[in-house]
Specification:
With 94 residues, this protein is mainly β. The protein has no helices and 9 strands. 0% of the residues lie in helices and 57% in strands. The strands form 2 sheets. It has a 5-stranded antiparallel sheet, with no helix packed on it. The mean pLDDT is 97.
Length: 94
């Protein structure tokens, strides 16, 4: 099944951090990837993310303004499971 791609916009990239805004149309995905850095996600909208992981599918609700942290090494495909656009800012620590 072919899904639309989420749209990343790098806002800051230097020797300390990478800050990327991610925009997901309904059903859009990032594609499988592994995080090389610790990171914080700052949701800008409410929504539901569907995560395809090596352990199976998971659901992750987003709450606007409620940030969360993940360690480097996370591997997944992130899919917008909402019927509206979902936006978050990802801050990676180098």
């Amino acid at each position: 099944m072919s899904r639309p791609k989420a749209v990343p916009t790098v806002q800051v990239s230097n020797h300390r951090v990478i800050v990327t805004e991610w925009r997901f149309a309904p059903g859009a995905e990032t594609g499988w990837h592994r995080h090389g850095h610790d990171y914080v996600v700052v949701p800008q909208t409410h929504g539901l993310l569907l995560l395809e992981t090596p352990e199976g599918r998971k659901q992750a609700p987003l709450v606007a303004g409620q940030s969360y942290y993940r360690d480097a090494g996370v591997e997944h495909n992130v899919i917008n499971g909402s019927d509206h656009e979902v936006v978050f800012v990802e801050i990676e620590a180098r």
